Amino acid sequence: MEAIDLFSGIGGLGLGFTQAGFKIKLAVELSTRRLEVYRRNVKPSMVINGDVRKINFSEYKDADAVIAGPPCQPYSSATPKNSKGINHPYYGLDEEVLRAVKQVKPKIIVVEEVPAWNPTRLIKGLSNMGYSTHAKVYDMSLYGIPMKRRRWIITALADGNASEVTIPPANPPRPIDLLRGLPMNPCTTDPCSFNGKLILNHVNYNINSRIKELIPKIPPGHSLVTAYKAGLIREAPKYVKDIEKKHSYWLYRVPINEPVKVVPHPRRSMMLHPIYNRMITVRELARLYTYPDWFNLKPLNIDEMYRAITDSVPPLFAQRLAEAILKNR
Question: For 10, 191, 254, 292, which has the most beta carbons within 10 A of its beta carbon?
């Protein structure tokens, strides 16, 4: 079956759907560099580097599915209040999915968005077009993803009952197990070689500040803020002003056994390895998001790599969703 991937990013949804047996007919993404990552790894038949609002989808009527992850910034808790909602330039892009569906008339629609988003307009629009529609906020850690990532998933079917699409629950692997088999220290080149294997994107930034000496005191599963509030770190006020006002994901150390907290910007938050006293690398983050090791995030720079991963849907969740949809049809 062929799918159109809107707001494709680097390809979390698209990769998962291809792993379930779909072919990506068209990927649409505004970021040139993210689209290059998508093109290299997911290998769609066609790409459009541009604004979804300016594209006529009528010529793609033979596509079986439309999948989409509209930008979350208008609704995300990480967006400043004065820039959220209708004040954000990306507000309302979810309705472009409805326009694409009207023009393409696919059999399957899947939309992913943050929990703060209101799906009412999209659900009503799809229902009015005759689709069986189901909306649910999924905690992906309940479906084998090592991350406490909660997202709306809207599933709509032209044939079948969308509410019967069921992803089998699964226990996630331990984060520490996912991070095994990589060099202890980040690579100085990208790619690098380790134990005779080529390692992609095992790069990060050094933490160059007085805060660095506090890092060994932050336990797995804690940030500097939560460790301070729990009384595990007492000298933080010497180095950090207004620590009570800091985000709880600032200097967050990945847990060893439990699912990982979602950190909106791992580089700025200086997300830490569960054992080593350094930032987690891009490749380690990609593993936590269930990207395969062959997935190459170049030509993005390190900052862009971190952000693009966290903006994406974990491919394994997308694969299991696509498989559940196909099983229901």
Answer: 10
| 3-state class (DSSP) for residue 197 | strand
pLDDT tens digits, residue range 199-212?
A: 999 999 988 777 78
Domain limits at 209?
175-310
Same domain, 168 and 204: no
The domain that contains 71 carries what CATH number? Answer: 3.40.50.150
The per-residue pLDDT for 97 is 95
Q: Closest Cα to residue 303, out of 205, 221, 210, 233?
A: 205
| 60, 104 contact by CB (below 8 A) | yes
Q: Is the pLDDT of residue 322 over 70?
A: yes
pLDDT at 213: 82
What are the b/e assignments for 210-223, b being 16+ CB within 10 Å? eeeebbebbebbbb
- Model pTM score: 0.94
Whole-angstrom distance, CA of residue 293 vs CA of residue 201: 9
